[in-house]
Amino acid sequence: MVGGVFTPTESASIAAVYSLFVTLVVFRSLKLRQMTKLFAETTIQFSQVMFCLGGASIFGWLLAYYQVPQIVTDFITAFTRDPIMIMILIVIVNVLLGTFMDALPAILIFVPIIHPLAVAVGIHPVHLGVIVVMTQSFGLLTPPLGMVAMTACAVAGMPMMKIQKLLHIMMIPLLIVIVLCALAPWTVLALPKLLVPKWL
After folding, report:
1. How many CB atoms are closer than 10 A to CB 105?
2. Which of 88, 92, 105, 193 could bridge to 56 as Cys pair (CB 3.0-4.6 Å)?
């Protein structure tokens, strides 16, 4: 991805093919007769994601049709046009969304609403995108949903309650980094400006 050889989607496909080759040929931990069951499970999991994306896309279209982004922008800018206050609000809402909603549908639904607001108060789209992704990733750890934490516990065979104390301690530096990046745009935009200065 860094070299521009693959897009993120293509690199995921290449990684999947590579993993299949390693498990089938190198380590031989996977047998050909297991492939049918493996592909069936993958299809089910993929279809769940596609249903989420489909629902989020329909909801996003409805929001656009009824001009909800413009209504939200007008409502919030009537109280404040301070970019820092708006960014703090975006971080809080994203963290709250992450506690009960998966990241991908939340991004598809929420970003079209806040993007016009962010542009109206002078927040750079790249800065907004990075903060949204960071806060949604943070939400993947927070209970009760916490998909990443739940997956890690399932793989380790450990109950969710057993890791909560340690998990909350580890989440503190993550939250500090998110707040720092949200309040100091240069921390996010320095590298993009260095690599593609004309675009930024």
Report:
1. 20
2. 105
Provide the pLDDT for residue 124. 93
Model confidence at 180, pLDDT cuts 50, 70, 90, reads very high
Q: CA neighbours within 13 Å on the CB side: how many for 171? A: 19
Q: Does 180 map to a domain?
A: yes
If one counts every other C-beta atom within 10 angstroms of the C-beta of residue 190, the result is 12
On whether residue 45 sits in a domain, the answer given is no
Domain that holds residue 106: 67-195
Number of structural domains found in the chain: 1
Q: Is 53 part of a structural domain of the chain?
A: no
Which residue from 136, 117, 131, 107 is spatially nearest to 184, judged by alpha carbons?
131
Query: Within a domain: residue 92?
Result: yes
Per DSSP, the residues of 160-180 read HHHHHHHHHHHHHHHHHHHHH
Q: Is the dihedral of CA 133, 137, 140, 143 positive or negative?
A: negative
The runs of H, that is alpha helices, within the chain are 8-21, 35-65, 68-77, 83-100, 103-120, 125-139, 147-156, 160-183, 186-195
Tens-digit pLDDT profile for residues 105-152: 888 888 888 999 999 999 999 999 999 999 988 888 887 767 778 777
145 and 99 Cβ atoms separated by less than 8 Å: yes
Of the candidates 77, 86, 73, the one whose C-alpha atom is nearest the C-alpha of residue 112 is 73
